[in-house]
Amino acid sequence: MTHVDLGLTIDNVVLVVVGYVVLYAIGTVELRLGSLLFVGLAYLVGWACIGVLLTLALLAGINPGIPTFLVIAGGIVGFSGLYGARRSAPISTSRAQVSRSGVAWLLAALPAVLGATMIAIASLAAISVGVKGQLYAGYLDSFDFWIPKAETIYYAHGIDPGVWATIGHPEYPPLVAVMDALTFHLVGGFHPSVLPFQSTLLGVAFLLSAIALVDRFAPRWISLPSLALLASTPWFWARLQAPLADQMLAYLIAAAALAGVIWLYERNKAALILVFILLAAATLTKLEGALMAGLLALVVATAGIALYRRSALPGLALLAAPAVALPWRLWLHHHALPTSSPDYHATDLLNPDFLSKRWGRLTGSFHALYHGLISAQLQTSVIIWVSVAALVILALRLPVIAGAVTAWFVLSLLGLTVVYWIGRLTLSWYLTTSLSRVGTTVIIVGGTLTPLFLGLALRQRRAE
């Protein structure tokens, strides 16, 4: 085993252990063999927790290297282990058993096996490509600023404002760069070729997270084929290996949306904590993360109060998750760096003359969204329209939950459209680059929520 192999092993094993202990502390799992179903969710939660705390340590002037990583991981494990040992019994993670005849069992097993096989093939194929270290030249942002940011954090043992200012988009939050720099520390050098493998593991962990989260609510003949469709969609699969923050943001937001709907349905504390962790990490991943995380926190908290009144007040804590970006904004301001994107200014929304002159950009953006819905690649169209149909079905049973999800979809797309309206860059760039990356987050969220929607609609007990 080489130094690189050892470093990657330590990195990923520690993330899984941290995530598992956090899940144990909040009551999602017990530390037993049967909890292996949650290995993907453990990795995603571990990545989010370490990422947020390591980023905050960086902003406090602490070297985000191996010692800091191990101290933070050890602190999380120790605190969570003690807390978990004192908590009440965990929330049941058992699946409802449905008695079926032999023919019915076979008909249900076939799509589940097919879906599981497709997910396994897509995951293994992505990992095999990721191991080769191909960065995909089409994603120039990796070379332009994501990898250089990780490089400067690695070599400077922190964040050098002078160097940071020379790299593109210094206003972008540094969580992804911090985690990449940590990988460089663990493998013993600046080796960007390992990043596609790490990105692939995070993507596979996301797929496994979705399976684990919906498993109690949706039969596998629904959940596995639905997620297999997403995993095998060409653009989703190709981006599994790309070390870009856009895909990582989508994973965090989609997993948070799953946990948020689950909290709205059964109002358990574990799901609420999961939402908070994932939204905090999403906020520090990209600028768009603050928008999408803030909107998701708002609609989940509002729907919770509409459903449960005072007993849902803890949901208001979700509104604090996007506030984790405040230290980053203060750091930027202290070092005279831009705190927002120079590509657009929100104050332009208060200028009627400016907006009227750009009315064509707004209508063009809406037209592009509509055209994308009706002329998307076949698999993408299936994901979109099946998720819309599932949302309509859910609305017949759980209208408040369906309304909250719909509000997030509409507000997120509206937010992107407003940026394209007031943005300084050409509209064609926004529609061909930004929309194809950030906009697909909405599709990933919809595809991930589809099996949960259908599973909740099929259940007898109602939350509303």
Q: Would you mind describing this structure in some detail?
A:
The chain is mostly helical. 72% of the residues lie in helices and 0% in strands. It has 20 helices and no strands. It has helices at residues 3-26, 39-59, 66-86, 102-131, 140-156, 161-166, 175-187, 195-214, 220-231, 234-239, 245-266, 269-283, 287-308, 326-334, 352-357, 359-375, 378-397, 399-422, 427-437, 440-458. Helix 9 (220-231) packs antiparallel against helix 20 and helix 17 (378-397) packs across helix 18 (399-422). The longest helix is centred in the first third of the chain and has 30 residues, at 102-131. It starts with a helix and ends in a 6-residue tail after the last helix. The model has no long low-confidence stretch (mean pLDDT 89).
**What's the story with the biggest beta sheet?**
none
- Average pLDDT works out at 89
Number of domains: 1
Look at the helices and sheets and give the structural class. mainly alpha
Number of contiguous helices: 20
- % residues in beta strands: under 5%
What string, H for helix and E for strand, traces the elements in order? HHHHHHHHHHHHHHHHHHHH
Gyration radius (Cα, Å) is 22 Å
Please provide the count of β strands. Answer: 0
Euclidean distance between termini CA atoms? 55 Å
Low-pLDDT stretches are: none
Overall helicity: over 70%
- Regarding quaternary structure, what we see is single chain
Q: What general outline do the C-alpha atoms trace?
A: globular
